UniProtKB/TrEMBL annotation:
SUPFAM superfamilies: SP0830-like. It comes from Aminobacter carboxidus. This is DUF1697 domain-containing protein. Pfam families: DUF1697 (PF08002). InterPro entries: DUF1697.
Length: 179
């Protein structure tokens, strides 16, 4: 069995689209996955599955989730190697010590150079970003909550994704390595 991480988008945000983590773990168990663990309320699940590939796992999880909870959540399923590479390829290692100001977004696909250029044109504040494959790294020196750039990022880039702060990234890596 291989280790995977499922990153849910848009659940338990602002009191909306509530999903209890115990129920989410039970859902993964019903799907036949093993060694299931969740981290914080924003929808992070580490699990083991027969190596079916991330696309096949996503196509298995998303429709069942929507049927169960009555709304769609974009789910990014990634394997252990992906999250290890995400951490190893951090372009801002000097910022890793302040995990609330460093973020990584798992993107549905690698953006085109035109999409990245369009985003770079809009990055005029103190924020910095780098895209490596299907990961967008974002440094927000004033914090994500005060970042105007973070607000426009999804609709400017137009590549679906889900963002986690560096503390969450490192915790998920640790959980996945121990699974």
């Amino acid at each position: 069995m291989s280790v995977f991480v499922a990153l849910f988008s848009g659940i338990n945000v602002g009191g909306n689209r509530i999903v209890k983590m115990a129920e989410l773990r039970a859902f993964f168990d019903e799907l036949g996955f093993a060694d299931i663990a969740s981290y914080i309320q924003s929808g992070n699940v580490v699990f083991k599955a027969e190596a079916a590939g991330v696309r096949a796992l996503t196509e298995r999880i998303e429709p069942g989730f929507e049927k169960r909870w009555g709304f769609r959540s974009r789910i990014m399923v990634r394997d252990l190697g992906w999250i290890e590479a995400l951490v190893a390829n951090n372009p801002y290692p000097d910022m890793a010590g302040d995990p609330t100001k460093l973020h990584a977004s798992a993107l549905e696909r690698a953006p085109t150079s035109e999409e990245v250029a369009r985003l770079a044109e809009r990055c005029t504040g103190p924020e910095r970003f780098v895209v490596k494959g299907d990961v967008l790294y974002l440094h927000t020196p004033d914090g994500l909550g005060k970042s105007k750039f973070a607000e426009i990022l999804p609709r400017t880039l137009k590549v679906p994704g889900t963002m986690r702060n560096w503390r969450t990234v490192l915790t998920l890596l640790e959980m996945a390595q121990k699974a």
